[in-house]
Amino acid sequence: MDLHGFLKAIARRWPTAVVCLVLAIGAALAVTGLSTPVYEARTQLFVATRTGDDTTQMNQGQSFSQARVQSYAAIVTTRQVTRPVVKELGLRTTPEELASRITATAPLNTVLIDITVRDTKPQRAARIANAVAQRFSAVVERLEAPKRASGSEQTGKSRRSGADASLVSLGVTQEAVAPAGPISPRPLLNLVAGVLGGLLLGAGLVALRETLDTTLKTSEALGEFTTLPGLGTIPYDRNVPKQPLVSSDEHSQRAEAFRKLRTNLQFSQVDEPPRIIAVTSSVPGEGKTNTAVNLALSLAETGLSTCLVDGDLRRPCVASTFGLVQDAGLTTVLIGQARIEDVMQQAGARLSVLASGAVPPNPTELLASARMEEVLRELADTYEVVIVDTAPLLPVADTLGLASLAQGALLVVRAAKTSREQVRTAAESLDRVSVRVLGTVFNMAPVHRGNRYGTYGSYGELPAPRVSHPRKEAAAATPLADEK
What is the Cα 145 distance to its own chain's centre? Predict the structure, then answer.
């Protein structure tokens, strides 16, 4: 999928992306609201080496401190430091848990140690940081004291002398103070993370659905997939169940689409125009009956004598669409109970309808019979065009026998509903019985807002005539009373 295709998929599946974005932002806000604030207090220590006034000794002491300061930082989280702090401040925690909230770092080429303490209360974080710094200084100075002075901790005076004997001295350069605000949660950062996460999640789901979705979304994709000519694209209309028929004086997008289908069908077969055309689809629900009915109406509108045959003997719908009688029709003729002219019904000046008749127990055998071929030939001799509405190809075998008797077939494909595999199987089925597929009809295609090109009411509407006023140079436009 290229970038253009991906952007079109995002536009087509924008509800998925919006839902993911809303959920991610909601999750970020929930995390922010439910998280306990954490505060961070920081103190800093300076490590000095006890030397004399000699410059050489001072430089050596500086190098000594820099070499050992990294090791000092690792002592901050040991039990020698944390256990006395817990006891001194009366904290309700363990030394190990306190150590997990303490961080000590020593910047390179310096003799500084930064101690950071995190806690849920700002004042307590500052107290713990200062207590850790004091205890840490005492531990380091004791460890760096000569062995002869390490045992002189019996009294306060001897402890001071032991500290004086230490090779290093730690001083606080910055005491910890209560932080003004928490370091977490960070509402803005969480919101940004939620937005980015929602966008990535939405894009991922759209890409996944596009990968798993094998339906055909556009007529161009259908043409590239089947290599069959696309004779028409019928836009989706929510009013079709209530008003399935397109009237001759209607100028809607759907009406114009059927007229375009009629024109493309006539021009695509100029040398050998088919007289008997079967209209079928891969599976039910693709709109084949509606396509057959309105194509027949459109052909009759041009003055061609047209016959519409309901060849779907399992779920016939043609008679009910026109409000005609269904009990007598094709099956009545096939079993010899009536002649064609006896059961033929009129649906217009140039349109005759042969209903299905009673539903038989063996539709496949009837439609593939020699008598069916005779009926179609007789209809072709009487009418200029015969449109046969057939059953779907994949669920039943009725259409294969009937389509082989026709001179061409139209394959109806429903937008975003029919899968590629269904279209491929249907086309291969027709090819195996040597049926000439005239082309495809892409049905129930989405209508893009703002794209009114091709509707009679906008593109085909005649401009208003100009009426000149004898006293004015400018012309005023007046609308026509009736649309053409």
Answer: 69
Beta strands in 66-224 (DSSP E): 102-105, 112-119, 168-174
Domain span including residue 47? 39-174
And the tokens for 441?
């009809």
pLDDT of residue 145: 79
Q: Is 323 left (phi over 0), alpha (psi -120 to 50) or beta?
A: left
pLDDT number for residue 63: 61
- Please give, one letter per residue, the 3-state secondary structure of 228-265: CCEEEEEECCCCCCCCCCCCCCCCCHHHHHHHHHHHHH
What is the domain-level CATH number for residue 369? Answer: 3.40.50.300
Stretch (H or E) spanning 171: strand 168-174
Instruction: Find out whether 223 and 53 touch, Cβ atoms under 8 Å.
Output: no
Question: What would the two tokens of residue 75 be?
Answer: 């002592």
Tell me, yes or no, whether 54 and 137 share the same domain: yes
pLDDT tens column, 357-404: 999 999 999 999 999 999 999 999 999 999 999 999 999 999 999 999
Count the domains in the chain. 3
- Tell me what percent of the residues of the chain surpass a pLDDT of 90: 67
Same domain, 204 and 223: no
Q: What is the pLDDT of residue 47?
A: 87
Same domain, 29 and 45: no
- By mean pLDDT, which of 49-58, 168-177, 391-400, 463-472 is the weakest? 463-472
The answer to the question of residue 451 being in a domain is: no
458 backbone dihedrals φ, ψ, rounded to 5°: -120, -60
Question: Is the domain of 408 the same as that of 335?
Answer: yes
pLDDT for res 3: 80
Q: Name residue 44's beta-bridge partners.
A: 114, 174
**Which of 2-11, 66-75, 149-158, 447-456 shows the lowest mean pLDDT across its residues?**
149-158
For the chain, helix (H) and strand (E) counts, in that order, are 19, 14
Parallel, antiparallel, or unpaired for β 276-281 and 168-174? unpaired
The DSSP element (H or E) to which 429 belongs, if any, is helix 420-432
